[in-house]
Amino acid sequence: MAPGLDLTVLAREVGADNTIPISTNNVKTVASTTLNSISLVLDPSTVTQEFDELRFEAAASRQLPNPNTTNHPTATSTQLISSPYNNPGHYLDLTTLDTPNLIFAKALTALKPLRSDYATAPYISSLDFSSVLSLIRRFSNELNYTWTSHTFYVVIFRSQLKPDIDNDLLYKLDYESHREACESGGLLKYWFGKTDGERRNLATCEFTVVDGAEEIRFEEWEE
User: What three-state secondary structure class fits 106?
Assistant: First the structure.
């Protein structure tokens, strides 16, 4: 069995007052030694800090070890780049996650936009969830992990900036807010794009458990 992706619930793009409880079913336990191994990624210092590459080219996925090579990387870490901020204090500690959250967090390094009008286009077709799902299958197979059902949460932010917005202040507020969110725990991924010609933008977060987030579920799926 491998996970399939059911994103139909996101078509509503509901507000922050809708909360759905998390649920898991029939999760297979993974040996701690194997889990420790998959918690290792390449050190964040080996990946660019360039915003555009992290946002639009899924540069964080370069932390994932190449399964087709026998060479063992010398610089490894348990700190995952989980946002466009490749800086200390903004990483996700993979050792704090259970198996499905660990798999999902690593798979989310592949998240990037599929179309230039993501600021206003439907959420499901705006981001590359197919690549995320492919990595979930890969990591599940590597762990010999049987995934039947697990629920995550997503928040979708759609914004339109005022013409006189202080961009430097906005950046500082966003940067510090993300750092605090990393300290609080539960945040698996934060992604945001660039504003379009009308100063509109899309940002999104994926969580383990959070009040006010909408459900994203990976259900049982037959190959």
Answer: helix
CB 154 within 8 A of CB 206: yes
Q: Report yes or no: 107 and 139 within 8 Å, Cβ to Cβ.
A: yes
Tokens in use for 5?
């992706």
The set of residues, in sequence order, having a beta carbon less than 8 Å from that of 163 and lying 6+ positions away, is 199
Number of H helices and E strands in the chain, helices first, is: 6, 10
User: In Å, how far are 25, 143, 158, 202, 216 from 205, measured between CA atoms?
Assistant: 24, 26, 12, 11, 11
pLDDT tens digit string along 171-219?
999 999 999 999 988 999 999 999 999 999 999 999 986 554 555 544 4
Pairwise CA distance, residues 137 & 64, whole Å: 14
Distance separating alpha carbons of residues 218 and 5, to the nearest angstrom: 5
Beta 214-221 vs 24-25: how paired, if at all? unpaired
Using one digit for the tens of pLDDT, what is the confidence trace for 36-78? 678 999 999 999 999 999 999 999 999 998 877 666 667 899 9
> Could you identify the residue written with the tokens 């898991």?
24
Residue (of 181, 46, 59) closest to 112 by Cα position: 59
Q: Match 């950046």 to its residue by tokens.
A: 171
More confident call, 164 vs 36:
164
* Token couple for 103: 């798999």
Q: Are 190 and 55 in contact (CB under 8 A)?
A: no
Tokens (6 digits) for 127: 């981001």
Q: Does the predicted TM-score (pTM) go above 0.90?
A: no
